[in-house]
Amino acid sequence: MTTFFIIRHGKTLFNEKERLQGWCDSPLTDEGCAQMRRLSEGLKDIEFSAIYSSTSPRALTCASMLASDRSLDIRARESLKEVGYGSLEGEYLADAFPEGQLSKVGYAQFNGEDLYTAQQRFVREMQHIAEEFPDDNVAVVTHGHLIKTLLGSFSQQFAAETIKSADQIPPCSVTVLKYENNRFTLGTLPDITWRTSSDLSK
User: Strand 2-8 and strand 174-180: pairing?
Assistant: First the structure.
């Protein structure tokens, strides 16, 4: 059985400003870096066989922090990138969705992705990873909305597409999924208790 520790990256500048951040990028804030340092400390006793990451710099930065005390290379994959928002990239959430609802289908109308396509590329990548690491712990550093597309199939609370949906998957939270016999099962919903209580300034 493969056990996935799916990590949302730390807080970024666009997260702070409530702007859409799909395939575009913004840097981690000081708080986001501190969140990831604390999470890395909290996960120090988990033996990972591999660390995978989205190719987005905000995710790679977090993956590098997780890998810093481990003799593991980061395996960057485009298939682990966030949902693509097309022409809405970088827009303020409130301006892009004045009624407070995200698209229930996706963003193809804005030259972005539909949610099913995003979910399936994520699922296929994780299946490929499980084939390579069938009895291992694997860390995957990725993005809030992408994680949500998969969690919606396990829990109704993740199905609603509101502009605050990413709040359901906090920065540097860990979602545990298990994969065996061609089937995913939910271990834990997004959880921030993996972060230690160490001083944020460290």
Answer: antiparallel
Domain carrying residue 156: 2-195
Catalytic choice (9, 113, 143, 161): 9
By 3-state DSSP, what share of the chain in percent is helix, strand and coil, each rounded to 5? 35, 25, 40
Residue 201 domain-assigned? no
Percent over 70 (pLDDT), the chain: 95
pLDDT tens across 143-154, in order?
999 999 999 888
User: Does 202 reside within a domain?
Assistant: no
Active site residue 82: yes
Do the domain assignments include residue 20?
yes
Question: Residue 54: what residue type?
Answer: S
Q: How far is CA 15 from CA 92, 159, 161, in A?
A: 10, 21, 17
- Is residue 44 a part of any domain in this protein? yes
Q: Say what the pLDDT of residue 200 is.
A: 41
Residues in binding site: 8-15, 58, 82-85
Q: How many folded domains does the chain comprise?
A: 1
- Separation of first and last alpha carbons in the chain: 36
Instruction: Identify whether 9 is a catalytic site residue.
Output: yes
